[in-house]
Amino acid sequence: MLFRSWEQAPQARWPDVAPVADHVGVEHLLVTRHALVRQVLTDPGTYRPDNALDAVTPMPVAALRVLAAHRFRLPPTLANNGGASHPEIRALVADALHPTRVAAQRDWLAALVRRRVADLSVRLDAGEPVDLHAELAADLPLLVLARLVELPDAPVAAVKGFARAALELFWAPLDADRQQTLATEVGLFHQLLRDFAATGGGLAGSLRAAGHSPDVLVGALFFLLVAGQETTSQFLTLLMHRLTGEPAILAGLRNGSVAVADVVEEGLRLEPPIVTWRRIAAVDTTLGGTPVAAGTSVVLWLARAGRDPVTVDSPDEFRPGQRGSRRHLAFGAGVHRCVGDQLARMEAATVVAEVAPLLAGVRVVRPPRCPDNLTFRMPDAFVVRR
Ligand code: HEM
Questions:
Q1: Which PROSITE patterns does the UniProt record give (predicted)?
Q2: Which CATH architecture fits 4-385?
Q3: pLDDT category, 12, cuts 50, 70, 90?
Q4: 93: Cβ–Cβ under 8 A, 6 or more apart, which residues?
Q5: For the residues 256-273, what does the mean pLDDT come to?
Q6: Three-class DSSP category at 73
Q7: Which residues pair with 287 in a beta bridge?
Q8: Best of 224, 233, 331, 347 to mutate for ligand 1, by most ligand atoms within 8 A of CB?
Q9: In this predicted structure, which of 149-153, 186-190, 357-361 has the lowest mean pLDDT?
Q10: Cα gap 86→181, rounded to integer Å
Q11: Which string of b and e fits 181-213 if b means at least 16 CB within 10 Å?
Q12: Residue 335, SS3 per DSSP
């Protein structure tokens, strides 16, 4: 649930605010309580978002050269933009993801998921193992996103590969060789996006029409291609895995005594795909009584905030609809709060409703494994059998 080196730190009980050093010796301030995480997220004057996409393992010159050769730039556009252009760029993305446009995708998605679940059931009945991550969850959010914002016609596998490479390059502890490999993959995709940004319709067209530079277009699309699909596909896998260990909830879903929407919220609270998010202190200040110097990297432990006993009755139990279940911070808060939350919820609700009967009859052969990463859980194969 947290950077491995911090998880293994000797603190048996984390204080509200704790200084922690990362794998390269950089100090961060880890914030563990719901109220304090919220306070930071909703005070952009004191805590700026500028470091949200900074690489936690500094890039060596060789990897930077690779990125530069592909003209890779990540100017402030959305999550890392504390400047004047943020509201307008955000508004254009929000238009593309408007709740009515999201709702219009529901039937199409439900039909696709139903077909896949039916095929998987046949294979499970025949005694085969199936990988619910690869064969059900992984590409669904990308397919929906492509319909909503008219994405480039890149093959799904290439986009998934690039997105996971980006999450590793910016948020994982890495050695120099791996950084170079990842920089090549991310750089190549960036170049592809640059071509698309010049001609693409949909969101790319609206950003161009609003007068944004090619760098801004590429930056916004780059972020959206990662944030807008990889997060949700990770969440779908984490939630399905969790539900296989919650037979009473699966039974409740089937007989209608448990609401799908409540399961999704409780899932976001207990199994968020994004476990931490960063801000940087803009001025000298204090947080929960701890002095914070300007320039401090503040790591907000979103997953832990969701389990704060002050806000939720049974913090570690999966109880859909319990008091405080919806008060999680899985989507952040304030002016940068996730703009795709309704889309993610719609996708998760559709999958949960369709897959619940299948999950009730399987046993887990291989649970998904999550690599070491500051922010993203990135589960891999999730294999089940009847
Ligand atoms: C379960 C799935 C998802 C989770 C857990 C999630 C979580 C987050 C978090 C924690 C932030 C940072 C919020 C902050 O700084 O306060 C964020 C920002 C953002 N997310 Fe999501 N997200 C998800 C799905 C999506 C989807 C489906 C889209 C779009 C298709 C999306 C687009 C964005 C954008 C554009 C931002 C930046 C907003 C801004 O800075 O104004 N996310 N998300």
A1: CYTOCHROME_P450
A2: Orthogonal Bundle (1.10)
A3: low
A4: 78, 203, 220, 224, 339
A5: 98
A6: coil
A7: 290
A8: 331
A9: 149-153
A10: 32
A11: bbbbbbbebbebbbebbeebeebbebbbeeebe
A12: helix
Token duo for residue 246: 């919650």
**Whether the predicted pLDDT of 106 surpasses 90:** yes
Indicate the SS3 state at residue 272. coil
CA of 93, closest atom in ligand 1:
35
DSSP 371-386: ---SSB------EEE-
Residue 92 one-letter amino acid? L
CB of 93 sitting under 6 A from ligand 1: yes
- Tell me the C-alpha distance between 139 and 271, whole Å: 19
List the chain domain ranges.
Answer: 4-385
User: Looking up tokens 């399905």, which residue turns up?
Assistant: 240
Written as six digits, the tokens of 145 are 């996103």
Q: What is the pTM of this model?
A: 0.97
Q: With a 6 A CB cut-off, is 140 part of the ligand 1 pocket?
A: no
Q: Which 8-state DSSP code applies to residue 125?
A: H
> 306 vs 213, 265, 303, 328, 349, CA distance in Å?
38, 11, 5, 5, 19
Token pair listed for 358: 């299948």
| pLDDT above 70 (res 71) | yes
Integer Cα distance of 223 and 163 in angstroms: 9
Q: What is the pLDDT of residues 198-227, one digit of tens each?
A: 999 999 999 999 999 999 999 999 999 999
Rounded distance, CA 163 to CA 158, Å? Answer: 9
pLDDT at 13: 76
**Res 152 pLDDT > 80:** no
Provide the pLDDT confidence category of residue 191 given band limits of 50, 70 and 90: confident
Ligand 1 pocket residue status of 145, Cβ below 6 Å? yes
Give the pLDDT confidence of 277-336 residue by residue, as tens digits: 999 999 999 999 999 999 999 999 999 999 999 999 999 999 999 999 999 999 999 999
Which atom of ligand 1 lies nearest, measured to the CA of 334? 16
